[in-house]
Amino acid sequence: MAKNFDLVVIGGGPGGYIAAIRAAQLGFNVACVDEWKNEKGGPAPGGTCTNVGCIPSKALLQSSENFEHAGHAFADHGINVQGLSLDLQKMLGRKNNVVKQNNDGILFLFKKNKVAFFHGRASFVKAADGGYELAVAGAAAETLVAKHVIVATGSNARELPGAPFDEQRILSNVGALAIQEVPKKLGVIGAGVIGLEMGSVWRRLGAEVTVLEALPTFLGAVDQQVAKEAHKLFTKQGLSISLGVKIGAIAANDNGVTVEYVDDKGAAQKGEFDRLIVSIGRVPNTIGLQADAVGLQLDERGFIKVDDECRTNLPNVWAVGDVVRGPMLAHKAEEEGVAVAERIAGQHGHVNFNTIPWVIYTSPEIAWVGKTEQQLKDEGVAYKAGTFPFLANGRARALGDTSGMVKFLADAKTDEILGVHMVGPMVSELISEAVVAMEFRASSEDIARICHAHPSLSEATKEAALAVEKRSLNF
């Protein structure tokens, strides 16, 4: 017998579970369907982000950074470590436990907010009774009928043609988070967020890491002054980064992976690796959704077509997150999920794409919001820039990490902040001040006039804002 709901959310990742909870808060009878399984076959909501993305990668980044600090940085603090060793299985176990805590937290939130949870894969069957009939394939088959449907099915790693993921030798983000022994030589194709973060993890733990990037510029989406500083720092740490390469044949066997490529000078090269991580982007996940059953439109790249408010071509069917246009970021999906739930309730949910922050959780971290300097130049916008190095920040000196800087870009006439770019310690936390400022259309002068705690890393933000008018006080 069919179970009826005001709203069924397909997918329990950041966009899906947040949309379900917000809709329940607004008084709707809500169900969420998610098929992720834990090691025992039980439910593991949270999507790619919680299970094989944001959360486990940050756990390994923290553990590997602790290991590197113990081996190299502690001595500067007068802490002598002898007999340092790595228990990789315990490290991976901690990562898995962090994931489980987040899975369990989401299930608790569903219960708290009276969201019905179904463990399985949902697909469209037909339009029915002023809504839609959905089939849930899982341990217990279910038929659901919903007036509204939100599709939040996320994305999958993109494979290289001729080199499918086996998660043993050729790895996506899934396999990169579960390598059972530190490889002597690790290859990474793609110098994006995943490639740099996973490359950093395994380099810290002892791997010799080579990053191969097809684009001629490093981190092309990042402000290039920041990107150049990051490239210099990563190279100094030991990451070997080759830009402008053309990948050729890839062959995997029991002993490792061979990658043939042409470097930026046109010379043929061959890389021999124990493992190869491929991080060349992600593709929308509509597998098994049965979009054709109800005429749900996809675009030429497989994304679900939506308008600016996440409406699809079908009445009362919405889509959010990685499966639609826009940046593939967990927090973007969350904001869209909230906005759609509020739109269904007749409210005016809103997502400002111009103030969505980006973060790369390497060490140093990279974070930014708004326009880059090259974008402003291309658009012919007159601007002023101000920078401040962490080298001149007292808290950074005390931490022992003075790498990087903060950079402000402001309109030359109005002084409105147009972009803020950072590379350095804990900038994933510092960027929020810039996001708030830009949401309220603040000027660089506004930040420059606000009292910041001393000593704190946030003083670098204030000093960069002061530097827009060339009146930095500590540099």
From TrEMBL:
Subcellular location: Cytoplasm
Gene3D superfamilies per UniProt: 3.30.390.30, FAD/NAD(P)-binding domain
Cofactor(s) demanded: FAD
Enzyme Commission identifier(s): 1.8.1.4
Signal sequence annotation: none
Keyword Protease: no
Catalytically driven reaction(s): N(6)-[(R)-dihydrolipoyl]-L-lysyl-[protein] + NAD(+) = N(6)-[(R)-lipoyl]-L-lysyl-[protein] + NADH + H(+)
Name of one Pfam family that matches: Pyr_redox_dim
Cofactor info, note text: Binds 1 FAD per subunit.
Main location: cytoplasm
Other known facts: The active site is a redox-active disulfide bond.
Annotated protein name in UniProt: Dihydrolipoyl dehydrogenase
